[in-house]
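User: Predict the structure for this protein chain, please.
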Amino acid sequence: MNASSTDRIERQILLKAPRAKVWHALTDAESFGQWFGVKFQGQRFVPGEVTQGAITYPGFEHLLMRVVVRELQPQRLFSFNWHPYAVDPAVDYSTEEPTLVEFTLEEVEGGTLLRTVESGFDKVPAARREEAFRMNSGGWDEQIGNIERYVS
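Assistant: Here is the predicted structure, written as structure tokens:
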């Protein structure tokens, strides 16, 4: 299921993997980085703290991914804030309102239902809102496939 409004992007997939395995892939920073395309070596996701690493995705290696972890509800919810499509190293995105990314897990017959929601695009500055939404929408399509391959 792929749903979206102008403020949020939603993706949902049934992963044929146990919830504990999916949870580890999401919340162990190094595992997350392997499927997401970021080097988070030696770092951990801790609520209230910043985690950052070099993006390894071709064409974006000059960028850092920086997230502020919000919630870690074991085996159920992992969330963080970030600045969507913050790809211009000459721009200071820190004054912008970040979006919220939420990963929700549910044990279902046949595996784990993973729901991903990124919300808050209506607060992204108008000059870059449409492109950030479009690029992240396509990005989530790709990342859902990446985690599916990673946990299979």
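The chain is about 30% helix and 35% strand.
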